[in-house]
Amino acid sequence: MARAKPHGTLKLEMRAKPTSQASSENPRTHIVPSRETRLQRRERTLQIVDRLEELYPDADCSLRFKNPFELLISTILSAQCTDKRVNLVTRDLFKWWPNPHKMAAASISELENAVKTTGFFRAKAKNIQGCCRKLVDQFDGNVPQTVEELTSLPGVGRKTANVVLGSAFGVAEGVVVDTHVGRISRRLALTKAKDAVRAERDLVREIPRNHWVAISHRLIQHGRGTCLARKPRCAGCGLEDLCPRVGLPRHLKIRTRISR
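Structure (tokenized):
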């Protein structure tokens, strides 16, 4: 015979903390991803998309840029580096070399010194120099607008291509999957994949195309402020009633339940 839950625990579980209208009206239900039908998961995904739009209506790319070229270079530099640090570095970088022609002509030692604080500076300097030279030689100094052409540039993978297309050109060719997006997507059971390519494939299958660009910015903002890697703030989370908390340690789940 199953043991009944103590009366005090039941009262605590039903007392939801009102973080948004939707989450305050609906008591927390236990979501088991393996028991969801395809339709149920699709409906929950759409609810997550709508809720994130409510929570972060103004979420946008945190890299500062004035044109597609600046965003391209900034995104290459952002690998294993914070956007805040990249923004500090590019403030001077684009003063010295404001376009592909001038950056392509810079010496590798100059570029290394300029981007040194972003980490992996030798590889990054080599990539941005090679990228600019190819932009000049093959694209007349213009940033291309297809995934195939962008990923042909040194230092540019699919994630960088999606960032540039989505934020600089408004073209939705995929979902940008960075550390935050991957972690939160797995926690929400939107994907099981730990690699970005497979995770993106799962996300674009469930999320409407008109949300592909914005969803990344919103998940990133959610990951920085609420859904932290080690100690997520579940009790004050606007997605609390939609999240199965996949991968969250049991003691954190229990602590969150008691705190409500």
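Residues 49 and 169 are 22 Å apart (CA to CA). The two ends are 28 Å apart (CA to CA).
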